Queue: 2 jobs
Job 1
Amino acid sequence: MKYDRENIFARILRREIPVQPIYENDYVLAFADISPKAPVHVLIIPKGGYVSFDDFSLNASATEIVEMARAVGKVARDMGLQESGYRLLSNVGPDSGQEVPHYHVHLCGGAPLGPLLAK
Ligand code: 5GP
């Protein structure tokens, strides 16, 4: 799947749509999900244009991959979730219901999250 430069997260990265960063560096941006599914629901995205984890894991540089992993851990700690715990989720493609075709990790926590998947 070709990367769509007009997807909503690409527009957020270009600041065509306002965003309040929770964390940002040269490689990643983290911001609150507009429709939170948990008391804490943060989206962490790479600044590079990757459609999904499949694209990212295949084509991103080692630096981008490390920076993404480090950022997810940092945001979780910064949000105070280290002890209580949290869930990471990334949808890939149609069966997952991925809505936005720019790789992102959902970081959810702040309360018991229940079963992994809805029935
Ligand atoms: P997906 O289903 O692709 O894994 O998740 C996309 C997520 O992006 C959804 O949880 C949705 O609420 C969130 N989202 C969609 N549009 C926007 C937006 O314009 N701003 C923010 N902050 N989140 C968005």
Note: The mean pLDDT is 97.
Job 2
Amino acid sequence: MRAPSTPDTPSSVVPLTKEHRLSRLPHRPHFLIYGHYDVQPPEPFELWKSPPFEPRIEGRSLFARGSCDNKGQNFAHLKAVESYLKTGTELPCDLTFVIEGEEEVGSKHLENFLTANRDDLKCAAVVISDTGMPDLDHPALTYSLRGIIAFEVKLHGPSRDLHSGLYGGTVDNPAMALCRMLAQLHDKKGRVAVPGFYDDVAPLSAYERKQMKRFPITESNYRKLLGVPKLFGEAGYTFVEQRSARPTVEINGLTSGYQGAGSKTIIPAWASAKLTFRLVPNQSPAKVRQAITKRLRALCPPTVRMELEAGHGGEPYLVSPTGDFAQAALRTLRQAFDREPIIMREGGSIPIVSQFKKILKADSILLGLGLPDDNAHSPNEKFNLDCFEKGMRMGALLWPELAKA
Ligand code: BES
Ligand code: MN
């Protein structure tokens, strides 16, 4: 039997019915709390110390796929609101939780839902805990996220795998061709070698660069945390700038030829790569996508046939950290963590954030509870239980602060 197909078109998005609507009092501010319950693929399973979907607590860590990114962080907000309800404490504002299941693939359908329900979802701001902080001593308000665009490139060579002894030297090997192409996506300075790619990049102000120097992780600790012998990145920028305020290209997956044990002497019939580019404020995903497509077509040799598939995309985000809500959020962090909070840019992407701004005209207040060693998108993802506890305090203290901001 065929599985029922999922509705996919904007017209399938139904506005909220009367029963779904919460009666809202006109004088109370309304905030959304956004998060996601979908997760990145848990593979490779063999690297997990315990099954990814059976949460396990060890010390102050809860291990599971999605524990940090993003269920644990959402749960902190739910528990905080629950404490208001259980103690009969009146919330100073109306709240709507918007927890979706497509964040990790670009939030395509939620965008339609926002449009269809823009009146009901009208709000003063959106609160999101789906980012990070450098450590428990530095709670953070994030004021910028990178955007993203994804591609899948597939090169087709011979009509079947060929004996590499019999035919090697006479046909192009698609895996070799793909490596040659991909290697040309960086120049010698570690910049993305796509004509026009940097055209709209907003330069970093001297002031912001100075502030970024105060980021509380040293380069050598950062390097050790990631387990690399040396850092790599765009020349002329610090690692803090490179990871959050400069655009990049990455190969996320690379597949071709024989993957089993031992050797197999073939020229594979095809080779493919999954690529993502991170974008920074002022870059337009549509415009950059065109430039990249053009570049890949130009790089593709005539000896293979290229198939190029466009994947998800999301715009970069930047909001002033000096606004009233941002200041209220910083006061909340100070109280909840009993530490001086920092403001920072993050390199990850939350595609719907720019749509909250466009469709609902609402800024997002990004109050992340993730730690650098939480292994997001990686085996043995965890959520720190101290972050969870402080996060619940943050969630409880936040609403009075935001409501009066
Ligand atoms: N929670 C992350 C985004 C994030 C993490 C931002 C840490 C800042 C700091 C989110 O779930 C995520 O991973 N998003 C994807 C989006 C993409 C697949 C469309 C990303 O950034 O890769
Ligand atoms: Mn994620």
Note: The radius of gyration is 23 Å.
